[in-house]
Amino acid sequence: MIFSHLNFGIWYLNPKSSKMKQSGSIVNRINRRSIINSTITKRKNVLLLGSGFVSKPLVDYLVRQKDLKLIIASNSRADAISLIRNHKEIDIVDLDVMNQENLNKIIQGSDVVVSLIPANLHPIVAEACIKHKKNMVTASYISSAMRELDNRAKQAGITILNEIGVDPGIDHLSAMKIIDDIKAKGGEVTSFISWCGGLPAPEASKVPLKYKFSWSPRGVLIAALNDAHFWMNGKKHKILGGELLKSHFPTVPIDSKYEFEGLANRDSLSYIDTYGLAPLETKNAMLRGTLRYKGFSDLMYSFLKLGLLKTDPENVQHNSWPDFLDYVLFGPSPTTKPVMESRIHKIKEKLDLSEKNQLMVDNVVEALKNLSLLEDPNQTTTNLINPPKIGSLSPLDTFCILLQDKLKYYPGEKDLLVLYHEFEIKLKNGDKVTKTSKLITDGIFGSTETYTAMAKTVGLPAAIATEMIARGEIHDKGVLAPTLPNIYNPILEKLDYEGIKIEESIIEKGMRENLKWSGSGIWN
């Protein structure tokens, strides 16, 4: 997202209330719940930076809190207006994060700042919050730049609570609740395995990658190129970024209704300290992974081998998406004009598969046709976005533009959020048990009755944390993650009330001993 320079100004909007829906709708459920006593006189100002699709659950929740006054700062007037359509007395201000004068002005009048803008901009906002001694909430991972602000935030006497979405966020809450309970009873966690994935519901997944994007695909593609570090069966393991997709976990048995595979997620080892489980050497496993439907990793690895995930910027223009693929396959100056036969031959050459695995070539060709990268006389493509004509973009960034258009959610389609923790536990009496916590929830795109699964599991935890900070219920200062009991217990309780319910179970045997990261075995 690029924040353009906008003139600073407040628009006072008073939209007409929409007609109430039947019992069970969000509007009725929100308005029939009274949270606080009406005698409260001083309202705290909450400033929301950003108006993306995860913002709506946060806005809807916060306007129910009669002791809070919400202000939305956005670089998109249309998006901001859509957020307040059913709400009165919400102010909107123009946002230009890079304009320090404007940023300082809007932050100065707030009590809590919620930053749902891109994570690389959070440190800029945090600097202003420290300057004006205003609390802050984000749903993003604590970056090194944010962590460096810890002492200054403490000196300013403010709370900067990060990682309070779903992953990171609800994963911390549910994990720490169980871990602290085990410790309190004299037990020990001997293995921790965690999986999380935001996916299309199965009926909406019949597309290449069996995946859809609700925001920029870049994060998903880049994540597939990162190194991964984890601990399994008493040993440290490292998978290099270029090998991560090939070395996926081909089977992750969480629920019989879904066929999941998994990818190791960056540095799992750091969570041994985050969750207070050190020393690492005493554990059987420490693994955090990302869930995908079976087939995702092999197809994405094929795209990697073809060159679609290259990250070096190239100053080149493409007249069509097949032209872009020709450039990726043959380079800028092929000796002869590519035709379908030579394209498929080049694809086979780059994939470098054995004869027994040639079916994968057919799958890749079919996916490229579906994505309009190969011409297909059997498909008619309408309203397809064109390749960018200006600027210097990497093949990965150009590919992202296509994926965001071709693999988007349509109104009425469902998404799915799956979060799963598995703990092997040694009890105080020496007995061993395996405990799980599981959250599976779905949502609908384009619905006025409900949210998407991703929006509600990111927006609601952030909203509840904001409410608690505004009311002075979180006293810890500095740059924090939600791993303290006084933070995670109330948030989990309120999430349960909002319908985000985490199921905890004791099972006979966990997945650890059967987990392999050898991939599908089709690659040389």
UniProtKB/TrEMBL annotation:
GO terms for biological process: lysine biosynthetic process via aminoadipic acid. Pfam families: Sacchrp_dh_C, Sacchrp_dh_NADP. Coiled coil: none annotated. Residues 46-161 form the Saccharopine dehydrogenase NADP binding domain. Residues 165-500 form the Saccharopine dehydrogenase-like C-terminal domain. InterPro entries: AASS, NAD(P)-bd_dom_sf, Sacchrp_dh-like_C, Sacchrp_dh_NADP-bd. It comes from the Eukaryota. Transmembrane segments: none annotated. GO terms for cellular component: cytoplasm. One of its GO terms (molecular function) is saccharopine dehydrogenase activity. This is 9525_t:CDS:1. The keyword Ribosomal protein does not apply. Keywords: Amino-acid biosynthesis, Lysine biosynthesis, NADP, Oxidoreductase.
